[in-house]
Amino acid sequence: xxxxxxxxxxxSILAVVAIPAKANAAPGGRPLGACTLExxxxxxxxxxxIESIDLKPTAGAQSSYCRVSGYVDEGSHIGFxxxxxxxxxxxxxxxxxxxxxxxxxxxxxxxxxxxATASTxxxxxxxxxRDIAWALNNRPAVVNHYxxxxxxxxxxxxxxxxxxxxxxxxxxxxxxxxxxxRQALVEAEDYPEEFDGIIAGAPAWDYTKLFxxxxxxxNYVLAHPASWxxxxxxxxxxxxxxxxxxxxxxVQDGMIADPRQCRPNLKxxxxxxxxxxxxxxxxxxxxxxxYFSRQRSAAEVRAGWASYPLSGSDSNAFGYxxxxxxxxxxxxxxxxxxxxxxAVDAEPGQFALGTRFLRYIVRNDPDFDYRTFSIARDAEQxxxxxxxxxxxDRTDVGAxxxxxxxxxxxxxxxxxxxxxxxxxxxxxxxQRDTKNHGSKPLxxxxxxxxxxxxxxxxxxxxxxxxxxxxxxxxWVERGEAPDQMVAAQxxxxxxxxxxxxxxxxxxxxxxxxxxxxxxxxxxxANPTKSQSGGT
Length: 535
Known about the structure:
Elements: H1 5-8, H2 37-40, E1 48-57, E2 64-74, E3 76-85, E4 91-95, H3 108-112, E5 116-120, H4 139-165, E6 171-177, H5 179-190, E7 197-201, H6 207-223, H7 234-245, H8 283-293, H9 298-303, H10 322-327, E8 333-334, E9 340-341, H11 349-362, H12 375-390, H13 398-402, E10 406-412, H14 420-433, E11 446-451, H15 468-478, E12 484-491, E13 494-502, E14 507-510, E15 522-525
Parallel strand pairs: 4-5, 4-6, 6-7, 7-10, 10-11
Antiparallel strand pairs: 1-2, 2-3, 3-5, 8-9, 12-13, 14-15
Helix pairs in contact: 6-11, 6-12
């Protein structure tokens, strides 16, 4: 069982000047104190260090904001940044961060909405989401990254907010995606009193199984070099998937509402004898696509595998498609000994993240041969070693729900980083494991939204634009549980279509009349019976 972060960290972060909830509050959300170190430092514990504090100009309704940067010294330096708007809406927003972190999330958008907005680097400095060299022989930093950094940064930010405005936030919200989605779930599971509303986007909740699958998928490509598919082939792949599956949701519109409803017959893409490879695939390439997208058995799911249903939005052109995440955007490289590798400057995301996790965190050996790893042989030991620290799989959120908390989970159907079905699995586990959630149905506090055409964390060609924070606010503050959110598909800066995204398991269903690009002509309805395959 994982220890509570603040207990692990001792009382250091709690040794602060007590500030009553409504003492000397500034009217209209204006700052009570000055944007100076002298105004804030007395409220902080000795292990909290402010590195910079100054007023920054900003656009929109905010004339300026006070930007505070610093760190909590707790085994490693847990960096944080906090933006305090000149016109505060009396609310707090914390932003989760993905990958192996190393830099905080950008707070400007939250500040522009009036939130006191904070984020953390998760306990180390890093160069991009794939940088993990910091973890080698650095156990305190690893523990901070997975467990302590977010709760300690949250506690510090709330203390500074109270010192600056003279009052605590009226509502506190968390928004994170990917690794930030995992952080969101940890807050709901282990720190139910910290936030009123939590958004977990594409959460990497079963972290160990996910990263083991990353390594296995990469090893498949390297062991079957003839299966490599060049990125330019995916236009034809996407077109064929759409040809077979677009109508599975009742309307032909270039988008598949639920990819599970159609299993495309990929053999339609097989090159005929003597035909050019342009626009068609070899048997090995089709076998690879089927391998990655096929429905996994119950035993495989328990072992850690997940399926990635083809969605017609799998091209790298949209940001995070199959080439960038699994196959690589450049041809495989073969050395003099015949060993096949990914091009160093085009390592696919699953390979980069999975092998670095094995080498720097699991094995603590940067030279560990990832090709020797096998889920069948090594999964049980790795789970025992790592899951208590890395996973957000304590799926009883009863304490969070009983105090009025609302949890919104969302996931893009075209996500090749984290399988969309992992969030469906997570949602089912929360429903199963949360027994003591009060008198109301659990659906009044926990909802899942599956988003067509969206790749990892709002990249993609689909319904990438929707106001999840606004929907969460109305849910928490007015009790308006979101049955749907209107989302927009944007191309070249212009809205191409709007469509409702529906609380799972419902999907948007066309009414049969009116513009198919207008959300007003759709209802949220239960999905049709799954088809066995495409045509």
